Q: What sequence folds into this?
């Protein structure tokens, strides 16, 4: 087929508009529009990581959906191909090669150097969960490569599945994920090497869900439907949350993550469409529907007929900012589950976005793990009940164990610091020039738009707010973003600069609940509050912030000036505070480079 060209880029790669907010150490397409990461995996034969992504090589809007491709030795420094790996060039995928997976084996299941892509082949559009669904518009297709991904051949028998099960009223069915799932194998009594496939979507008027399939171990074209994996209902709202899980899932991934005690916990991550604010319903046409990146965990339960479901125990948002369409894989090198997501450019007005000639990037790689907080007694923000993102279990001596999904930067990202200038920060740097309630540190002038900050803060009882000022120019306070923790409310907030930013840019703050917990110190028996851990990466306006390795917020900033940046630590205490209301230790690395 002949691919149409939509909103061709007006800017060249060496132009100021093209480069102004273009990240330098994040993975992104050579030009044009990009969205979902696809096919994240590791080729053990060649010792290469692969990342694919949805790409429109002909324009800067969604359309002409192809697969871009990049390879890496370490998931930090990427080599990006300048041509698509897959294009919509067949009758069954002429409307788009949508998101999918990479399985590091051939069609016969042998890991002999052949690679297999499993993707959503689209033959009819538009497709949206609010529209009538045409069965067969989304099908499942495969492509293989025998040269390490340099070239790909679509399988002659495509599509291998014609669409969702005919006995369900699906509203979408796409984004295949393929991997082994130890937890599900145990529940269904299948071999540990059993391969499963997952297709994401929803059942009209009922629930968002994912359909689980058993994939033939010696024939990747053999998919047997086990059934819908999730039945939580439309717009299910976790206890204590100010969001819900929507009406349609995209990009669902499953995983069994090892617990500290040697067991394992099963998780799903999913992108949620049709999310409403609390109190609204999906049927209310006056409501504003949004997308969020979610996760859930709970026991796997097999039915008598061979089907299985994950029951809800806890869940929440994988990222409280703009990140969406997260995909993941098991990394055999560091033996961890790794995820990357799409950071869209939707904070820019369309006219400005078209002028810059590209849209979107992928997040830095993140480690997912089963996180347990032990010896917990409570928090300064209230009781432990009704916290939907945590499974709360009573422990001995009246304490509790809290289980949740942990998220932290990939350890290989430390290599970004190899040529960076390190600036140490400590409590001694804080002064109180504005009276006893306000402490500020010295202004740290940076030489680049690529930096990292990592610090730990022990808050005292009279600390009300603590964080970081990010000055985007020499104008100081008039051109400032802030990342801070509200101790009274137990929330973290990214406040974007409202002035000296591009006209029409989204300057709404991003925020997330983030309680700090009190715990018993097993060495002394004393009760103590956990430290606030902040780890952030900044790259030409892309800001990824990790709090205590369990709360993540991704924001996109668009300052007019991308020349002068400086940082300043600040803290605020109560009126009675006479000493610095926290102890802080950390560092900034200025000049990160892949």
A:
């Amino acid at each position: 087929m002949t691919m149409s060209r939509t909103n061709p880029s007006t800017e060249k790669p060496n132009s100021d508009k093209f480069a102004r907010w273009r990240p330098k150490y994040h993975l992104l397409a050579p030009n044009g529009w990009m969205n979902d990461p696809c096919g994240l995996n590791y080729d053990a034969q060649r010792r290469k990581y692969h990342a694919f992504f949805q790409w429109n090589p002909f324009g800067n809007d969604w359309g002409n959906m192809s697969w871009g491709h990049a390879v890496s030795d370490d998931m930090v420094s990427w080599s990006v191909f300048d041509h698509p790996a897959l294009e919509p060039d067949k009758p069954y995928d002429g409307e788009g090669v949508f998101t999918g997976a990479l399985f590091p084996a051939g069609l016969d299941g042998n890991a002999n150097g052949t690679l297999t892509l499993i993707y959503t082949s689209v033959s009819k559009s538009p497709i949206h969960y609010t529209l009538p669904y045409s069965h067969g518009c989304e099908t499942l297709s495969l492509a293989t490569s025998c040269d390490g991904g340099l070239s790909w051949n679509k399988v002659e028998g495509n599509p291998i599945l014609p669409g969702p099960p005919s006995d369900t009223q699906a509203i979408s069915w796409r984004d295949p994920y393929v991997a082994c799932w130890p937890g599900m194998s145990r529940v269904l009594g299948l071999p540990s090497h059993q391969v499963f496939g997952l297709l994401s979507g929803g059942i009209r008027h009922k629930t968002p869900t994912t359909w689980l399939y058993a994939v033939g171990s010696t024939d990747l074209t053999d998919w047997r439907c086990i059934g819908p994996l999730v039945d939580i209902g439309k717009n299910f709202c976790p206890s204590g949350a100010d969001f819900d899980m929507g009406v349609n899932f995209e990009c669902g991934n499953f995983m069994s993550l090892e617990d500290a005690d040697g067991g394992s916990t099963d998780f799903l991550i999913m992108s949620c469409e049709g999310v409403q604010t609390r109190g609204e319903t999906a049927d209310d046409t006056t409501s504003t529907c949004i997308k969020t990146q979610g996760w859930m965990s709970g026991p796997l339960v097999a039915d008598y007929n061979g089907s299985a479901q994950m029951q809800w125990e806890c869940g929440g948002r994988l990222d409280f900012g703009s990140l969406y369409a997260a995909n993941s894989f098991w990394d055999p090198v560091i033996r961890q589950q790794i995820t990357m997501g799409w950071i869209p450019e939707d904070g820019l007005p369309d006219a400005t976005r078209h002028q810059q000639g590209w849209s979107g990037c992928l997040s830095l790689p993140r480690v997912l793990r089963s996180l347990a907080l032990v010896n917990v007694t409570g928090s300064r923000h209230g009781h432990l009940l009704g916290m939907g993102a945590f499974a709360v279990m009573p422990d001995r001596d009246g304490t509790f164990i809290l289980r949740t999904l942990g998220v932290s930067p990939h350890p290989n990202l430390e290599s970004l610091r190899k040529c960076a200038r390190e600036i140490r920060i400590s409590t001694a740097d804080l002064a109180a020039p504005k009276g006893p309630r306000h402490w500020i540190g010295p202004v740290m002038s940076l030489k680049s738009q690529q930096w990292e900050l990592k610090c730990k803060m022990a808050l005292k009882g009279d600390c009300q707010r603590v964080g970081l000022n990010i000055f985007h120019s020499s104008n100081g306070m008039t051109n400032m973003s802030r990342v801070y923790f509200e101790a009274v409310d137990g929330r973290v907030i990214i406040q974007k600069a409202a002035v000296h930013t591009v006209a029409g840019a989204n300057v709404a703050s991003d925020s997330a609940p983030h309680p700090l917990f009190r715990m018993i110190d097993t060495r002394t028996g004393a009760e103590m509050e956990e430290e606030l851990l902040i780890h952030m990466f900044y790259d030409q306006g892309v800001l990824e912030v990790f709090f205590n390795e369990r709360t993540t917020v991704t924001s996109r900033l668009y300052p007019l000036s991308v020349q002068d940046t400086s940082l300043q630590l600040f803290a605020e205490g109560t009126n009675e505070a006479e000493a610095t209301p926290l102890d802080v230790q950390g560092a900034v690395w200025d000049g990160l480079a892949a």
Notes: Residues 1-6, 279-287 have pLDDT under 50 and may be disordered. The two ends are 38 Å apart (CA to CA). The chain has three helices and 40 strands. The longest strand covers residues 366-379.
